[in-house]
Design a protein that fits this description.
alpha+beta, two-stranded antiparallel ribbon
């Protein structure tokens, strides 16, 4: 595996030279586009809109389009930016692990160190483990400065790219349904969650990709794939929610052969829980204040 970036972790006055490796990979099957009439492959070419010439990568540069024209920005310009994070992952804070909202997590990378960097790397790794915290850092990669999160996974320091706070849309923009839910239904849903707890995520697989592979294999062999009826989406009609929850618990237990999951006794009906209009108004007002208090992004 080849590194995609090299630099250093800046940890106070400690500098840890590291190499960055992709922590994930895609196993998706790539489908190309073809001309229906003759089977010709559809290609996308880079053509200059001024002279109509098709260009190679060596003939292409980057720039920023303004009202007065395009301002070219070269690799040398980007490398010369006066940023402390240009070649360093600068740790700026340590925070509790549970304080990080998963909605902010992006691409993941493994960080590796060798030689003289091994000891400070191990120091940071064990400090993260013992403190039960994660480190928030800033780094520059692929033409922009990013926010990152450092944590330990199987004795390796992992860097997760993170979204900036102003890249997260306000959840107050989503309409919250105002419906009644009984305590009985809530307890039934919790019972279902308990039944589904403890599943080994390592056993999960991409069934869509497997089905697509079988389809391609069958067509390659000249066979005509048997049509499979796709599951129908859930009906929008009103259903007996308690009956569906009870059935779900039973089916979940039956599907977990050898598991210690049990079907919990569902409680008797109790009072209902309802989001009041006043509560909804308070939530929206809080979201509006939060949005108004944000600083505008610089152009």
């Amino acid at each position: 595996m080849r590194p995609i970036w090299s630099g250093a972790i800046s940890f106070g006055l400690v500098t840890i030279p590291i190499k960055v490796f992709p922590a994930t990979e895609s196993h998706s099957i790539s489908l190309h586009q073809f001309h229906t009439a003759d089977g010709g492959r559809i290609r996308y070419r880079k053509v200059c809109e001024v002279d109509g010439k098709e260009l190679t990568s060596e003939e292409i540069t980057r720039g920023y389009e303004t009202a007065v024209g395009t301002i070219p920005v070269t690799d040398e310009d980007l490398d010369a930016l006066p940023l402390p994070t240009a070649k360093a992952i600068e740790i700026v804070a340590f925070v509790p692990t549970e304080s990080m909202d998963p909605i902010r997590i992006g691409a993941s990378y493994y960080l590796a160190a060798e030689g003289v960097a091994a000891k400070p790397y191990e120091l940071l790794r064990q400090a993260l483990e013992r403190s039960s915290k994660v480190a928030v850092a800033k780094f520059a990669m692929r033409d922009r400065e990013r926010l990152g999160l450092l944590r330990v996974l199987d004795d390796v320091i992992v860097l997760h790219g993170m979204r900036w706070p102003d890249e997260i849309r306000d959840s107050g923009q989503v309409e919250v349904p105002d419906v009644e839910v009984s305590d009985e239904e809530i307890e039934a849903a919790v019972a279902l969650a308990d039944t589904l707890s403890g599943r080994d995520l390592g056993e999960m697989r991409d069934e869509y990709r497997e089905a697509l592979e079988k389809l391609i294999e069958a067509k390659t062999a000249g066979a005509r794939p048997e049509p499979v009826e796709a599951p129908q989406p859930a009906s929008a009609e009103v259903v007996d929610l308690m009956a569906m929850l009870e059935k779900s618990v039973s089916e979940a237990k039956a599907s977990r052969t050898g598991a210690d999951a049990t079907v919990h006794d569902l409680p008797a009906a109790k009072k209902t829980t309802k989001k009041t209009a006043a509560k909804k108004t308070a939530v929206k007002e809080a979201a509006a204040k939060k949005s108004a208090g944000r600083k505008p992004r610089s152009a």
